[in-house]
Design a protein that fits this description.
By secondary structure, the protein is of the alpha+beta class. The chain has one domain: Sandwich (Jelly Rolls). It has 7 helices and 14 strands. The strands form 3 sheets. Strands 1, 2, 3, 4, 7, 8, 11, 13 and 14 form a 9-stranded mixed sheet that branches. Strands 10-9-12 form a 3-stranded antiparallel sheet, with no helix packed on it. A two-stranded antiparallel sheet has the order 5-6.
């Protein structure tokens, strides 16, 4: 029995959050076998404070057609799937420039995650996703989720089938928390169940969310965001962000694994 298999069999879904980030546990996360990976102090308190202060100088925009409200700096495939692929890639350069100005002289959270993933994946390519004939995707969204989310999943092959990122066979998301409320920090619930085709009946009409019945009696793990922490979860698992008691600022991006095992990031 492998070390990874032994660890998985010995731990509950909730307790799997205590596993360290290693090549083996990253593979387990892509396979949906653990609830997530959490790395405390991925950014320093000073880096978080400086990024929070800089972000306060920027006007955050609301996600289109998302309730409860989510605010962000940057662009998302989720939104531009309704607007147009060419329009998304036409906006990538300006979105990257905004993030570069926001992070200039402080640190580049996206590059730090790319380096972290590369260290855990020495035998495969790691980089920002690329669309043939249109260029690189945007990655590294600054985002405020303070009003919580509905129970949902994120998986490009079913949600954005006309995009190159739909070629991924498994999908994660990372969040680096720059600022969280000390009381009610916006807990993250991750259920031990991945979406299936027959779950469509639980989908809330005209919404990205699902009826809570879809995860009735399913075990779940709860992640408590902390300033500076990197959190990575598998977004094919049903998950939900709870309402925060105040500020909740993070840097976020999707991480997909292609059939050749290379990793691509996008927002």
């Amino acid at each position: 029995m492998s070390t990874a298999t032994q660890a998985r069999s010995a731990l509950s879904w909730e307790d799997s959050l205590q596993l360290p980030a290693t090549p083996a546990t990253l593979e387990m996360l892509f396979a949906g076998q653990i609830a997530g990976l959490c790395v405390p102090d991925f950014l320093t308190a000073e880096e978080c404070a400086n990024l929070k202060q800089r972000a306060g100088q920027y006007e955050f925009e609301n996600y289109l057609n998302v309730v409860p409200r989510i605010e962000k700096v940057g662009i998302t495939v989720f939104e531009f799937d309704q607007i147009g692929k060419k329009e998304y890639f036409a906006a990538v350069k300006s979105a990257n420039q905004r993030i570069a100005r926001l992070t200039d002289g402080i640190c580049c959270p996206l590059q730090r995650v790319l380096d972290w993933l590369a260290a855990l994946s020495p035998n495969r390519r790691v980089g920002v996703a690329h669309e043939p004939e249109l260029g690189p995707y945007f990655a590294g969204l600054f985002r405020r989720i303070e009003k919580g989310t509905l129970i949902h999943v994120d998986f490009a092959p079913t949600e954005q089938p006309g995009w190159a990122v739909a070629q991924v066979c498994s999908q994660l998301t990372f969040n680096i928390y720059l600022d969280v409320s000390p009381i009610d920090p916006g807990l993250v619930h991750v259920w031990q169940r991945q979406v299936r085709a027959d779950d469509e009946s639980f989908k809330i009409p005209e919404s990205y969310g699902y009826n809570p019945e879809v995860v009735k009696d399913v075990p779940f793990a709860t992640i408590t965001p902390q300033r500076g922490m990197l959190m990575v979860i598998n977004t094919r698992n049903f998950h939900q962000v709870c309402t925060a008691g105040g500020s909740r600022l993070a840097v976020s991006s999707a991480v997909g694994q292609l059939p050749d095992k290379s990793l691509v990031l996008w927002s």
